[in-house]
Amino acid sequence: MPPKIPPMPDSLRATHPNLEKFWPFIQLLRQESERGQVLISAGFLEKQLKDVLLGFMIDNPQTRGLVEGANAPLGTFDARIEACYALGLITEDEHNDLILIRRIRNEFAHHIDTSFETLSVVSRCSQLRMKEEDYGEVKVGASGQFQTAAIPTTRVARGRRGL
To answer: Which of 38, 79, 101, 116 could form a disulfide with 108 if both were Cys (CB 3.0 to 4.6 A apart)?
Structure first.
C-alpha cells in the first residue's frame, strides 16, 4: 500500500501555489533519508537533462550514443548541465543551481558522514538561487532549500522540452 500523502496546507497553497503540483513528490522525498533525498533528486534531474537534450536532437542511434552508455560524451550529470547551458536550454540561475545540486550530490555520495547540517552543504544550499526562503514562522533550512530548488529546476527543464 503506498504511503498516505498529507494534503498541502491551505496557508502554504495560498502563498506558494507553484508547489502544489510537486507536493506529492516533496512529501515522498521527506520519507527518505537525507542521502536518499539528495540522490533521488539529483538522479531525477540528471534524467530530465538527458530527456531535454534528446528532445532537441535528431532521433537516431548516434544521437542516443551521445547521452547513453559508459563512454557517452554527454553521459554525466556535469556534461549534461554544461551542454544544456551552452545550447541555451537552461538559464543562468538553473545552471547555477544544477552545479550546486551536483556538488551536494557528490558530497552525499562520497562522504558517509554528510548531512544537511554539514557546513559545506549548508553553504551550497544557501547559494541556490531558486530556493524558497523562510516565511513567517516556517524555517526552510538547508534540506528545504535543496528540495525547493530542485523542484522548479525540474519543472522548467521539463517545460523546455514540452514534457
So the answer is: 38
